[in-house]
Amino acid sequence: MKAPPNGFLANPAEGERKSINSELWHACAGPLVSLPPVGSLVVYFPQGHSEQVAASMQKETDFVPSYPNLPSKLICMLHNVTLHADPETDEVYAQMTLQPVNKYDREALLASDMGLKQSRQPAEFFCKTLTASDTSTHGGFSVPRRAAEKIFPPLDFSMQPPAQELQARDLHENPWTFRHIYRGQPKRHLLTTGWSVFVSNKRLFAGDSVLFIRDEKSQFLLGIRRANRQQPALSSSVISSDSMHIGILAAAAHAAANNSPFTIFYNPRASPSEFVVPLAKYNKAMYTQVSLGMRFRMMFETEECGVRRYMGTITGISDLDPVRWKNSQWRNLQVGWDESTAGERPTRVSIWDIEPVVTPFYICPPPFFRPRFPKQPGMPDNDNDVENAFKRAMPWLGDDFGMKDSPNSIFPVCSCSIWTLSFNGFFESIAQ
Amino acid sequence: MKAPPNGFLANPAEGERKSINSELWHACAGPLVSLPPVGSLVVYFPQGHSEQVAASMQKETDFVPSYPNLPSKLICMLHNVTLHADPETDEVYAQMTLQPVNKYDREALLASDMGLKQSRQPAEFFCKTLTASDTSTHGGFSVPRRAAEKIFPPLDFSMQPPAQELQARDLHENPWTFRHIYRGQPKRHLLTTGWSVFVSNKRLFAGDSVLFIRDEKSQFLLGIRRANRQQPALSSSVISSDSMHIGILAAAAHAAANNSPFTIFYNPRASPSEFVVPLAKYNKAMYTQVSLGMRFRMMFETEECGVRRYMGTITGISDLDPVRWKNSQWRNLQVGWDESTAGERPTRVSIWDIEPVVTPFYICPPPFFRPRFPKQPGMPDNDNDVENAFKRAMPWLGDDFGMKDSPNSIFPVCSCSIWTLSFNGFFESIAQ
DNA sequence: ATGTTGGCTAGAAGCCGACAA
DNA sequence: TTGTCGGCTTCTAGCCAACAT
């Protein structure tokens, strides 16, 4: 057997050279994953980043030194986003270049707001979880009728039986060809020749999903989503997980100190740690007044590639890691769920993850004019209140203070560590 | 097809739970790889470590901040060594726990000296590079006659044809069974049934090697060595290579500042970066006076799992990275090779990698009494001379100064950053 | 001594409709 | 509408010695 030119797969570095199809990437990433747009403002949580690394390594870190100069969140400009897919496993991930900022202008804030609306799941899309029959060597793939009719090129039904050759490209642009035939009693769409090669090459098993899309250029593409069961089981072998954690924190701390850009990888399917949050989303969430017993809804991906909301109740508010990440808002809400079915749901979430079921009174009173929030048990009641109030107010300042006509006006915001400085600067800019 | 319980392979975490057979590990690692013994002293080169990461990532790092507090070498106590093998690829690597030390005692130094002698390549060992026929689906594996006679259990030649079932375990203790038969015209040893399963499971290709050993308990084991062509192509997807580099340096710097232990992975086949060097080996190399034009020999692994020496000449002496790692001895020798055949050899090596071809005059004059070395072009001629002279002297101090009877006497040595302090301490300890 | 090839065969892969949920 | 199965066919994996180097 001849060796492939470079490693196990035919073109391992290909995913790196070519740019990845964005629609296919999002289809593989799932309906809940949305990436903030380039040029927008985001909030970066080192704690969440650390959590993703721990999940990827399947190992909690024994010891990570505290980084006293690294705040629990950094407001950053998102300079660059590139989409990637692991050449071995097709796992999707994104590389982002972030630059901590002390001030930002209104355009960037608006751009950040944009990020909230777009849902990137392609319209011409279908996804099927593979059955035992689909993955057995005994036969082919049974195509759901609707899917074949909506996505596949139409068959010539004058043929007996109607059949055609299908070609679709994956995330790495590798083409896969299948024989698509409409036969059986009752009639059905099937993929036969070529299918098993795909299954074994991608190492798919019953429970994994395959998806077909037709992108905006009406190209026919296919991708996979693996069942959560399959962790990539990276035991690294390159650097220790301790050094990884230190590296992440040191890189962020260095960037924060110098306002220099740094690079992170966001791996949406490795762990549910959305540690780069659009600033607008974060700000919007800061309007929410949380309290024990509060009811909320939260979106989850279903087995069948859809989404559904589950109801829950806030049962506690406390720091996830009171030692290293004091007063962080990262997953500081303890929650219970109405349905205790399978498919575990997290016991801790962040405020921007949930959709509160609120009484109208609490939403959107004009900032600075609404009554001060009552103290909340379990919430830090130190001077962070001031900071929170400030941040809650931010997204609306441009409108409320009639700055619509001065789009270039710069007004500063803070990263926590230099709060005092920026806060003073803030009032100066208002006063001018 | 049913999914394996956890990922692609049957027991991905198994290599982590069970301890790896040391002889098999070393057989897979190759004849040039030797690990310093636990409890010995080693010299750790962050620069070399960084190099290994760059090689593993197949990416030079654009930007790594300087770590001014991190010396280019750290003398460390080696506390722990665990052997590992990647569950996916069987790539061998070692995890080491190092603790920077300012002082060390004579026992540790002697232990470090031990490390030099042991060659861990098992005696009952054979290794064959796979041919196209060996890896094709058309047939089995042609066993070299000598190998079968030396390592395999003897066949019953009264049978027609002589045959038996062979069982061997790999690094993860997974058993593999093969039909071993002696047949054909002319007669030969073959592995038939079971062989192709092994080849496809381990994803072996022509050019890769398979090796069989019989360990000290006379267990029959097998392992693989992949051709260098196949890089693991880790594009990480977890953390950026920048953060990795920073993580490595930050972890080492933190450990150096606190004399606290830190953990590294040494991946001998990923790159030829032996960045953890036994102190005795380092000290011994410090005796070598290098000069332009000096002739030397150096060992390399051959295609056929053996070793051979190549002759070369020193063509330059300079820092590999004069900015970040000034006066580091890491690969500061530029070299040319007598044979310019294929199988590239490095253009830069470290002094402890080579065996100088020296005139007797230069070796082992009594330290402190020999004439001062002439200035060397291209070598730093600053106060590092003093340091080098001191370090050259170290391994012999115990004997030369009659300290044989005081095994507990502590005498300090330095890491570069605290040179002055330690150097003073050194004379104090001599004086007492 | 051992790599490659053609011939042969057993068994797996894979196409099909029947049947059932 | 679609998952699984028994029946049947095709093709590849894989055993063998011949032949070549």
Quick description:
Chain A is an alpha+beta fold and 432 residues long. Chain A has helices at residues 14-17, 22-29, 46-57, 106-117, 132-135, 145-151, 195-202, 241-258, 279-286, 384-400, 419-431; strands at 41-44, 74-85, 92-100, 103-105, 125-129, 141-143, 163-169, 175-183, 188-191, 209-214, 220-225, 262-266, 276-278, 295-301, 307-317, 333-337, 348-349, 355-356, 410-412. Chains A and B meet through α3, α8 and β12 of A and α3, α8 and β12 of B.
Write up this protein.
Chain A is an alpha+beta fold. Among the domains of chain A are: 125-225, DNA-binding pseudobarrel domain (At1g16640 B3 domain, Beta Barrel); 287-363, Roll (SH3 type barrels); 364-431, no CATH class. Helix content of chain A is 26%, strand content 25%. The first copy, chain A, contains 11 helices and 19 strands. Chain A has helices at residues 14-17, 22-29, 46-57, 106-117, 132-135, 145-151, 195-202, 241-258, 279-286, 384-400, 419-431; strands at 41-44, 74-85, 92-100, 103-105, 125-129, 141-143, 163-169, 175-183, 188-191, 209-214, 220-225, 262-266, 276-278, 295-301, 307-317, 333-337, 348-349, 355-356, 410-412. A 5-stranded antiparallel β-sheet of chain A has the order 12-3-2-1-13. In chain A, strands 17-16-15-14-18 form a 5-stranded antiparallel β-sheet, with no helix packed on it. In chain A, strands 6-9-8-7 form a 4-stranded antiparallel β-sheet. In chain A, helix 3 packs antiparallel against helix 8 (241-258) and helix 9 (279-286) crosses helix 10 (384-400). Chain A binds a DNA duplex (21 and 21 nucleotides) through residues 131-134, 136-140, 142, 144-145, 181, 183-186, 188, 190, 192-193, 195-196.
